[in-house]
Specification:
Helices cover about 50% and strands about 0% of the residues. It is an all-alpha fold and about 70 residues long. It has a domain of about 40 residues. The radius of gyration is 27 Å and the shape is elongated.
């Protein structure tokens, strides 16, 4: 390998590196946004109740069955 060889970095990688250098708090802001929207504690008992209350879907949803007498 020649001594002037350097590893290739793509334009996107360079852009992200420059963006993080310009705004060092970016990663912390991303983590805070993720925690706000996605990282939530689930209520396991409510989740079990929801899954137990599901009604099975009919095979053909656009067909309305006549009421049986």
């Amino acid at each position: 390998m020649p001594f002037f060889w350097k590893p290739y970095t793509s334009d996107v990688t360079n852009f992200i590196g420059e963006l993080k250098a310009k705004k060092p708090t970016l990663e912390a802001e991303q983590r805070a946004g993720r925690a706000l929207l996605w990282d939530k504690q689930l209520d396991r008992s409510a989740l079990a109740d929801y899954s137990a209350a599901k009604v099975p879907q009919s095979p053909y949803v656009y067909f309305t069955r006549p009421k049986q007498r």
